[in-house]
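User: Show me a protein chain along with its predicted structure.
Assistant: Here is one chain, sequence first, then structure tokens.
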Amino acid sequence: MKKLLIFILLATSFLLVSCGQVFNTGQLNNVGLLLDGTIHDETWGKGAYLGALEIKEEQNVSILTRENVTTSRETEEQVKDMKRQGVNLVFGHGSDFGTHFNDINETYPGLHFVYFNGNTFDRNITSIHFDGYEMGYFAGVLSAKVTKRMKLESYQPFKVNLKCKAFSKVSKILTQILKFT
């Protein structure tokens, strides 16, 4: 999962840098990373931070990271400071940043905002969606292979979750097959 997040962040930065109309100057200056949590969470936040470090290394830019940013007001304060420090690409690591970015994007036309798993888009706002079906399928295969009790469970945090659907589908099939092998 960590490698997937790093890859997505790198691919996004390369994609945005290669599009001349994205930035006024056509190049990546510095990168901002806004997190609604901390980089020390050993999961989502840490993965984003490691991805940002990869961008820093690959693009030779500075990375400005701000943790525990949860409101539109905090987002605007941090973005204002990042702009002052030469940032022209801001990642908001979570779907809530779509609303925050939508509130301020017209104030910062020279910045490009990227966030994850949302439905807010504009000239300078991009949302990257993860298709969870493949991840759920793989998790189901792996779980079915290693279970000793032939019982598997999954937790569905959202109403529609492709990871859980794929997990359930493949794990039911494979546990039946594995019972007979």
